[in-house]
# Entry
Amino acid sequence: MPRNPAEPLAVVLRRDTADPLPVQLARQVRDLAVTGALGSGARLPSSRALAAELHVARSVVEHAYDQLQAEGWLRSSRGAGTFVADLPTPRGAATRSTSPRRRGRPENDLVSLDTGTPWQDPRVDPGWRRAWRQVSMTKPPKGYPDPAGLAELREEVSTYLARRRGVRRAPEEVVITSGTTHGWALLLDTVGSSGCVAIEDPGYRAAVAVAADAGFSVCDIPVDAAGLDVTALSRLEQDDVRAIYVTPAHQHPLGVAMSAARRVALVAEAARRSAYIVEDDYDSEFRYDVAPLPALASLDRHRVVYLGTVSKVLHPGVRLGWLAADRDLVRRLVSRRAARRDHPSWPVQLAVLTMMREGHLDRVIRTARRVYAERTALVASRLGDALGLEVAASAGMYVTVEMPEATARCASAAARAAGFDLPSLAGFCRTSSRHGVVLGFGGVSDAELHRVLDVVVAGVRRAEDSRGQA
# Structure
């Protein structure tokens, strides 16, 4: 009867620390057993195979295995191999089978490296407490809230957009939403239920899902180093393009900024087609090399619909954003919204209004920008060194690195084995074919970030070594 294959070990040995290599290896295997990543009965690689994979002497692995056997973490069987001893299931860990077809962690047991979870200051800012205390002390309005949003919050957002993004909209041209996808859905519901919408590819998959659910066909427009390819857009044969969805300040997920020439050309093309440009300005506050780039909405007041959110600043669960457009479109949006009783949450609006007025939002942005700048530099440096190339990253809460498909698969597999869900660039594509990883670092701790970089870099180097030997 064939033996179960050995479990892959997501371990990284470093020669630039004071800890001996056997001690490092024993500690990491012990951690994998404690967390349940290696379940009871899991078969480990032979000392010869693991030593070859880690590029160390076989004695390093033997010493580590001997130590773990002495501690009771491992057991060995002559002629069969080395296995994890029978251990109680760790609290919160899923039961793990040694069957080859069921290896791997459940999705909800992985640390997400998504692009949308912001960094959370471990200290609770007094401004956050004051905001919700203000909500508890304020008498709620009678009946449903204004479908356009609190008048005071719309005024505050109007001031904020002019100050931070150069978008000059009167309070009456602002609608409070539940986030960018909600604003996108509101617009599509207002402009019709048929036709075509153009969306960047690779791009924001939720925007595609919203458009498809609303009954629109989706036209994928390629993206290059200057942003959305307006020439490709102009070649579309469809004459019923209703809207063009773009992320010009920090293209999602490639991270490039749309050039000035492309911006001007896009506005002209949208005017030719009588289509709206929907600008998703999801994380423009987080730029490190220069000041945040001007919003596309500053070029055309009537053609561009601007979407913003606090999800990338405060927390995705706050579920509040805004849409800024010309008065006529706002009037139509609000009318449709009122008919459906689609009203924004009054307590959340009041809390965010207090946070903005008292400077809490600005403080969070300043602090997070410093954290993201440091993490961006770290990720770009580590992955760039592993691939032997310069990784350009100057904004946002994630870094995208393009690499060969096999290398990207190896990097994602190494991350998953270590307990991390690392998005693949291919997952953001529909008709384009691009490969790499998209490493979001907002929602992880410093220790988790260093850990995943260690295993991803090791996975990349193994893949590159294999390519070199092929």
In short: Residues 90-105 have pLDDT under 50 and may be disordered. The radius of gyration is 26 Å. The first strand starts at residue 43 and ends at 44.
